[in-house]
Task: inverse folding
């Protein structure tokens, strides 16, 4: 059972050193990043927390996020890579789950799978951000198209899996990719390589916030996992549920979490 966030014990809050969060409908609200949610990120980093978005969004967006947002790194395309920008050295570190030649070959295969899905599922579309992706295929089921019924979303997932892809549902897209990596696997690589932290040994120092089925590996791994209130729309479709849930939805729910952590400091 997901417990109200207010029940998070004060001693657990004080142990948190790293804040991990999804972006779409966890930080954003109705597709927009509000000033309140962005300010919450900035306040967390200013208070000494490591802040790392863990998102399904594309490499092109993540380059901007790593450079411009008040974050310490970003994991993108559901674990295909992490980007970390060194502001002092003016260098971007890019770490991928698979090499460049494999990514290029996979993109050719994804194009054929894309065409089959578009022909088979009326109303879906290639995600508007697909051109900025390096490793996965994103099919839009409600971002820039009228929302599709659950059966249509499940059919997209089924077609991807039949083609040999790992397929995950976010709040706006169905993402598919070749390989067994996910958000959690790349997050562990990031913290080991960049911060010298073995996540499995220090899980009590982390909190993760998310809102949809593609966040399930993170929910399952972190004892301090938090769903913003709109996660309830995926009831019965989550492989793992968060331990806690906010009162507010989307970006306001993230701000609720940030304020609780900041009070603990």
Result:
């Amino acid at each position: 059972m997901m417990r109200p966030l207010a029940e998070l014990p004060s001693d657990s809050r004080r142990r948190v050193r790293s804040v991990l969060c999804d972006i779409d409908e966890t930080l954003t609200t109705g597709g927009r990043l509000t000033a309140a949610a962005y300010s919450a990120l900035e306040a967390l980093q200013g208070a000494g927390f490591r802040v790392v978005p863990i998102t399904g969004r594309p490499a092109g967006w993540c380059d901007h996020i790593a450079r411009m947002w008040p974050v310490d790194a970003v994991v993108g395309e559901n674990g295909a890579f992490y980007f970390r920008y060194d502001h002092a050295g003016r260098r971007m570190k890019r770490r991928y789950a698979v090499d460049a030649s494999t990514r290029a070959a996979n993109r050719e295969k994804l194009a054929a799978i894309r065409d089959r899905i578009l022909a088979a599922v009326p109303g879906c579309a290639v995600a508007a951000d697909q051109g900025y992706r390096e490793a996965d295929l994103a099919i839009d089921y409600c971002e820039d198209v009228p929302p599709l019924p659950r059966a249509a979303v499940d059919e997209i997932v089924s077609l991807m899996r039949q083609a040999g892809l790992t397929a995950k549902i976010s709040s706006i897209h169905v993402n598919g990719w070749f390989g067994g990596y996910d958000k959690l696997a790349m997050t562990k690589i990031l913290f080991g390589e960049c911060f010298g932290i073995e996540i499995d040994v220090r899980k009590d120092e982390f909190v993760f916030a998310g809102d949809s089925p593609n966040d399930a590996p993170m929910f399952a791994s972190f004892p301090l996992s938090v769903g913003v209130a709109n996660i309830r729309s995926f009831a019965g479709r989550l492989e793992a549920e968060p331990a806690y849930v906010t009162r507010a939805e989307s970006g306001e729910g993230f701000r609720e979490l940030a304020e609780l952590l900041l009070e603990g400091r």
User: Anything to note?
Assistant: The radius of gyration is 18 Å. The chain has two domains: 3-97+181-264, 100-177. The chain has a mean pLDDT of 97. The longest strand covers residues 81-86.
